[in-house]
């Protein structure tokens, strides 16, 4: 009897720490998060009933704000966490060969210990890049830059191996017209830097889902032609790509319709890759009005709804929880109020927009 009991306890303990692994479309939804909180109302719990997840980005620098941390740690609302800054190149490898995983580890482990799975962001990006890669006067050759990039991707993905549900391997490689952005990587290596980075990530962490991530990918456009081309390029090298991340930094009044969003997701799905909304927010020119906040709620509804109604879409991540910590006001002066919780951490209509998007009927 004692033996049987301890076996049961072991099984239950194992079940409660089941690694959250969303799969393509339906499936595994009842594994997400820890047991015991599936019935509480919330955004993620609504999403998981539709085989999707709902997550948020957050940053180490806000960990002192206990009231805020309590919000993102609520698994009923958030099943997934994205560290918004501390996995970026400038933080991880500030000098060549000198790696700093401490802040990344802190946030990744906090989320995982709390039963939330992690989207890791990002390995190769032209922005928030360590100065040694492009700003000092160095003369890269193709060979030396490939080596430096592969080393960065390998060391980073190996370090976090097994802890990242997904990696945004390459971020924002496209211009608005769908041509390649003239980053240091593109200028020196050519388009091959993309499959080379993906191959290195796949080797370092074979189980992480590997994503191409960019903004303005949630509507058919020359830029999404570019994203589809990148997926095919990687596949043509015989290299694995699992998903396309639609950042979805949206602007009130210029948000694609539900049908437009579903149309482009279907295009990604046709290439055999999953997709996700990875950085959703809807900014507006301030001051806001009640009508603007209602319109924003509809935009959030459409993102959640487009994901639910598209076989290939696995989940939605908002780019932080509250207007208190949104990146928008600093980058777009005069704009803001982009997130579902206001500065006082009160739920806005946008919150209920997402909820309704996942539930539809109530
Ligand atoms: C890079 O070169 C410029 C012009 O040659 C020089 O003014 C600058 O100090 C150099 N920067 C570094 C970090 O060596
Ligand atoms: C750089 O080298 C890689 C192989 O490591 C190759 O695929 C790529 O085409 C080269 N780029 C240029 C500009 O020669």
From TrEMBL:
BP GO terms, sorted: xylan catabolic process
Protein name: Beta-xylanase
Coiled coil: none
Domain GH10 intervals: 43-357
Compartments where located: Secreted
Highest taxon of source: Eukaryota
Family classification: Belongs to the glycosyl hydrolase 10 (cellulase F) family.
Main location: secreted
């Amino acid at each position: 009897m004692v033996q049987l009991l301890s076996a049961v306890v072991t099984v239950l303990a194992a079940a409660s720490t089941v690694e959250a692994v969303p799969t393509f479309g339906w499936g595994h939804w009842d594994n997400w998060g820890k047991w015991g909180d599936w019935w509480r109302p919330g955004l993620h719990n609504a999403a998981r009933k539709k085989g999707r997840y709902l997550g948020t980005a957050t940053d180490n620098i806000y960990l002192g704000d206990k009231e805020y941390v309590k919000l993102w740690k609520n698994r009923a609302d958030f099943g997934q966490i994205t560290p918004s800054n501390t996995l970026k190149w400038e933080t991880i490898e500030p000098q060549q060969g000198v790696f700093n995983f401490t802040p990344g580890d802190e946030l990744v482990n906090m989320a995982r210990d709390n039963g939330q799975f992690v989207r890791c962001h990002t390995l190769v990006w032209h922005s928030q890049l360590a100065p040694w890669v492009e700003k000092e006067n160095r003369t890269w050759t193709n060979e030396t830059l490939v080596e430096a990039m592969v080393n960065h991707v390998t060391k980073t993905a190996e370090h976090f191996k097994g802890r990242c549900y997904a990696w945004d391997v390459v971020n924002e490689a496209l211009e608005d017209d769908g041509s390649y952005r003239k980053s240091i990587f593109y200028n020196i290596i050519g388009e091959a830097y993309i499959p080379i980075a993906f191959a290195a990530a796949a080797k370092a962490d074979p189980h992480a889902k590997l994503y191409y991530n960019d903004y303005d990918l949630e509507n058919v456009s020359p830029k999404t032609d570019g994203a589809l081309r990148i997926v095919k390029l990687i596949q043509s090298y015989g290299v694995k790509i699992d998903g396309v991340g639609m950042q979805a930094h949206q602007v009130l009044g210029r948000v694609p319709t539900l049908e437009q969003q579903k149309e482009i997701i279907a295009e990604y799905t046709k290439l055999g890759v999953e997709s996700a909304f990875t950085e959703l927010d809807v900014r507006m020119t301030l001051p806001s009005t009640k009508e603007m906040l209602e319109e924003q709620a509809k935009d959030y509804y459409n993102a959640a709804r487009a994901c639910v109604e598209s076989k290939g879409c696995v989940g939605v991540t908002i780019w932080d929880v509250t207007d208190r910590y949104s990146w928008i006001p600093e980058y777009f002066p005069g704009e803001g109020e982009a997130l579902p919780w206001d500065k006082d951490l009160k739920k806005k209509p946008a919150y209920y927009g997402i909820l309704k998007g996942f539930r539809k009927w109530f």
